[in-house]
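Table S7 (text form). Paired inputs.
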Amino acid sequence: MFRAAPRVILASALLLLLQVPNGCLCYQYKVGDLDCWGLPPSSNRLLYHYWSRNHSFRVGDSLLFLYPPSQDSVVQVTARAFNTCVVATPLLRLNDGNSLFNLTSPGYYFFTSGVAGHCAKNQKLAVAVPSADGTFPPPPADEGVVADAPPPGAYQSFPIVFGPTPTPGSSVSAALSPMSAGSGVVAAAASAFFLLGAAFV
């Protein structure tokens, strides 16, 4: 019986690892994916607009802004400041070059560069985070639409930096979503059954 103990422990550990509840898995998103936080190139001036549209955010996720701290910063602003690019009084200022912002509640989050003139050149990001039931709160009264936005698909986007690339027609959220509880239980049960069966042979 003592010979089976390590396998039983291994099977139990595997069972625990495979049972990730749907609501507990969070992601850290590097803003811009392949691009660091900075002025978008003239060939893709709405880089951050489309980056945000290609990701599904949830409460508990976080945004990682990478940039040279001597050249840029990130400020969280109101919807009005986001749309007018008047960012003199931000809600939050991050300037360490490796800035992590946690999405702690449902709602709309607005970010731009703290460098003068960068907001007007579209170095800004709006993120929408739904409630646990998947519904979005009403948008802020002064939230506007991005002006002169080209149609979706006009620019190539890279929704996933590390991991499989979704096939055309599949959704990014499906590629990023955690394993469903049902499939996790089935996989864990099958693995545990196999390992326990092998322990007693």
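Next pair, protein 2 of 2.
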Amino acid sequence: MILSRCLVRRLCVTSYKEMPRNTEIKARVQDVAKLHKIAAELSQSSGEVLYQEDTFFNTPQGRLKLRVIKDKREELIYYERPDQEGPKCSDFVKVERKAGELSDDIKLLLSRSLGVKGSVKKTRTLYMVGQTRIHVDKVENLGDFMELEVMLNDDQSLEEGEKIALDLQEKLGVKQEDLLTGAYMDMILKQ
């Protein structure tokens, strides 16, 4: 079962507006061609290829990153998520702007005030299956990975999101031993 701490944080973090939530699974990929094929079949699409660079900043809790999606948009994302294998709840806040409207000034401000933890460059193929984002990622200097993000509706329980994620994990052929706990940034820092 997903940590109840996530639900408590959701109620305590902000009283005027609930933070969006999702249920996530992240795993190492053994056969990326097979994963793309199954994801394309499930989504009935060829997916959308995105070139992303995430700059992570030092924070006392959670994670803060500036994501630049080449020629598309920029996102400043703060999220809290436990480091555990399998489905996990993630509470997040995101500010999104058109490409070139956010990154330079915000990156300078956050770099000076918080310090840069590091950066992650990846090519992401995004497939949508219902309310779930399937990410097939080729991460520079790390390899091939996949993420599932089940975007929870306000009336959905964490357990419902976990059930959806586990069902897709099985359909995609992702094995338990390939599940990961942390973020790509954590893996890069451990190298």
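Residues 158-171 form the longest helix (14 residues).
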